[in-house]
Specification:
Largest sheet: 3 strands, antiparallel
Number of helices: 3
Helix content: 25-40%
Structural class: alpha+beta
Strand content: 5-15%
Number of domains: 1
């Protein structure tokens, strides 16, 4: 577990939209195996992919979804100590104020 720095609030709301079609019936031709609907079929296909010795494999976007959940739970963007240091290098080059890690809320993930 590493400490992560939560960026100070900018009083801007951000939302994450779910990647689901507005009308799933528009892409459901009713031709899924075993009479399943689209959601049931996707769940069955993922279960099949993760089975048969593949239980520890990762699905595309799994890391990103996990970090999106951490970010949402923390209430803002998360930066590692290395990222804060890298931003400070760029700030120095650009003549901008440095980020002060002590001014950030720290969360442990």
């Amino acid at each position: 577990m590493w400490p992560w720095f939560l960026a100070p609030s900018t009083n801007r709301e951000s939302t994450v939209a779910a990647a689901t079609p507005a009308a799933s019936s528009s892409i459901n031709g009713g031709a899924f195996a075993k009479g399943r609907n689209q959601q049931q079929n996707v769940k069955a296909v993922i279960a099949d992919v993760l089975g048969h010795g593949n239980e520890k494999c990762m699905l595309p976007g799994q890391l990103e979804a996990g970090w999106a959940a951490h970010t949402a739970k923390a209430g803002g963007l998360l930066f590692s100590a290395a990222e804060v240091a890298a931003f400070n290098e760029l700030a120095t080059e650009a003549g901008q104020p440095l980020w002060k890690p002590e001014s950030f809320k720290t969360v442990v993930i």
